[in-house]
Automatic annotation (TrEMBL):
Catalyzes the conversion of epoxyqueuosine (oQ) to queuosine (Q), which is a hypermodified base found in the wobble positions of tRNA(Asp), tRNA(Asn), tRNA(His) and tRNA(Tyr). This is Epoxyqueuosine reductase. Pfam families: Fer4_16 (PF13484), QueG_DUF1730 (PF08331). Keywords: 4Fe-4S, Cobalamin, Cobalt, Cytoplasm, Iron, Iron-sulfur, Metal-binding, Oxidoreductase, Queuosine biosynthesis, tRNA processing. It catalyses: epoxyqueuosine(34) in tRNA + AH2 = queuosine(34) in tRNA + A + H2O. The active site is at D141 (proton donor). [4Fe-4S] cluster 2 binds at C205, C221, C248, C251. Its cofactor is [4Fe-4S] cluster; cob(II)alamin. Monomer.
Amino acid sequence: MTSSAPDYSALAAKIKTWGRELGFQQVGITDTDLSAAEKRLEDWLKHGFHGEMDYMERHGTKRSRPDELVPGTLRVISVRMDYLPEERTAVRERLEEPGAAFISRYALGRDYHKVLRKRLQRLAERVAAEVGPFGYRVFVDSAPVLEKALAAKAGLGWIGKHTNLVNRHAGSMFFLGEIYTDLPLPVDSETSDHCGSCTACIDICPTRAIVAPYRLDARRCISYLTIELRGPIPEEFRAAMGNRIYGCDDCQLVCPWNRYARLTEETDFLPRHGLDTAGLIELFRWDEATFLQKTEGSAIRRIGYECWIRNIAVALGNAPPSIEILETLASRMDDPSPLIREHVRWALLKHETVLHRNSPA
């Protein structure tokens, strides 16, 4: 006598309940047809908008065809988890303090990859306990996965003009994760686009990286420049970076839908080591051992110490001139790293130009 097939509709409902119990704010399910997203990706790559992110094209169609990445995949369970650690007004105030070190709010706490991956694994284990062994693989921004396109198809929101996923009840300040599975679960409906005629994100971008609605040139994006780029930051973008030393939240802070963004309930995403209130001078004085200790378990560590100091040098160059800033920058004029020395020289020259312009004739 054979056992009856699972009731997949009931199972999908249970998966969503279990997901909420594990701390996800929303769970959706979609199929693997990403043909429309694949065409957009191909066009984006063709224009070179990915810059030095070679991994975006390295895996070919595995990124847009889930069953090529994980053979047998029929469905994708997509989840989101809020990360905003403080009210948006406080974030804006911090951004407007020239001597403050601004770090994108998603990176202030524990590395989200680890937090979400562990919860997704527990969700998959709950499913296995219900239906027995099944094929699956967990992803959190760590493999060739079109997570925003999948989340949009799963009904978690729509991809906004800034290319982030937006949810009309929760804004856009949340993380995404996925479970690829061979279970033939019923799929959820997509939501419609609610950006309308709004261009706030396009207008606010400091480096004009959103070159058209729904079209981002990553080479101009401050998040790319401070996190993905390993060489010198192009001089044309340095002044516009202001005090942003890791990532940029401008397009999300100005989005009207983020008035509904909810503060995170995850203590792991709350700021650690005072990174939400640290000053540029304080962080510039860190040695490598301090950097490694203060960023242990953080997403920030992946950029490495050299790029960390590079970014802060640019921010110090944009800060109001002071003797302390000039002395702090000068302390690294002979840094062993050519990359750091070049950005320190730029920052000092910028201050000298400002001081000369403001000096009495």
